[in-house]
């Protein structure tokens, strides 16, 4: 419906959560596995034509500013933080303090202190989505917008908010400088797909009835907006994320359903007919090949999902030239371990000649 109205569809925001089944990374995996299994081709088309991601980056106190000449592990106390000076870190959980306290931590977890992952930062949830979209759908990058979030929970006068003791807390005054620094970091240092954050929420920041106006209001009002320069990035295609420093590789790799790689002869052989090719017509022209090799005929290939990783599969696809790209997208991209065997012909007679020539030399695949 969103597409029919001429708008760009996007994922609804997931609040950052940790621990147990409700962990955000669990939801990301399950959402994308469902789309992979049930709507792979359509979702890939949507990704390529204006899809975007909404996140709720509640940053907590997962940020800091280095001491002047103090090195990457030094952190200024709140009263020394200055939003107009360099040295800010918002790349949690990949910043030096996080990595020093829990080596190898990623958004996916796998470490003793973060077994299920940790997306409680400015770019964590967007990065988790982006990695899975790249692995499962060949995405380059899609825009990410924090539709709700910021340095939260908001501070109170004369109190320090310090939810994670590894990092300095923030105060009523320092919160303003950190907010300015956050927007500067998004513009200059964040991955190019990160486009901004809507600060939560209006009455707290600006309206006295909610406790505001906060000092961040004055600093924002007196700061010039910073344009974010974004290079052309393919929505679907190869793309390496530029980023400050090196991101550790994910410690958890999601298992895509389906068979394992082919070593020697495949254990299973499916024959798939592209859309528009009639089954009855196939049996008239392919009987000799069928009798010789006994492939399993498929018109719906989701059954590939149910083959175990210990098995292997070759798929012979009978297709017309205009359907080659679609069949590659439907099978080869979705199950990269499957050996693709294409028979491309425009007429039944061409298909029959190709299949009979294989039988004549005893060769199952082309």
In short:
The protein is α/β, with parallel strands linked by helices and 366 residues long.
In terms of topology, how is this protein built?
Layout: E1 10-11, H1 24-38, H2 40-47, E2 52-55, E3 64-65, E4 88-89, H3 96-101, H4 124-137, E5 144-149, H5 174-188, E6 194-199, H6 202-206, H7 215-221, E7 268-273, H8 279-285, H9 287-293, E8 296-298, E9 313-319, H10 324-332, E10 339-344, H11 348-361
Parallel strand pairs: 1-2, 2-5, 5-6, 7-8, 7-9, 9-10
Antiparallel strand pairs: 3-4
Helix pairs in contact: 1-4, 5-7, 9-11
Walk me through this protein's architecture:
The protein is of the alpha/beta class and 366 residues long. It has two domains: 10-221, no CATH class; 268-361, Rossmann fold, CATH 3.40.50. The protein is built from eleven helices and ten strands. It has helices at 24-38, 40-47, 96-101, 124-137, 174-188, 202-206, 215-221, 279-285, 287-293, 324-332, 348-361, and strands spanning 10-11, 52-55, 64-65, 88-89, 144-149, 194-199, 268-273, 296-298, 313-319, 339-344. It is elongated and about 85 Å long.
Main sheet makeup: 4 strands, parallel
Number of domains: 2
* Residue windows where pLDDT falls under 50 for at least 5 positions: 244-253
State Rg: 26 Å
Specify the number of helices. Answer: 11
Strand order in the largest sheet: 1-2-5-6
Order of helices and strands: EHHEEEHHEHEHHEHHEEHEH
C-alpha geometry: elongated
Through-space gap between termini: 43 Å
Strand content: 5-15%
In total, the number of strands is 10
Mean pLDDT over the residues: 86
Q: Roughly how much helix do the residues carry, as a percent range?
A: 25-40%
Query: Helices and strands: which structural class?
Result: alpha/beta
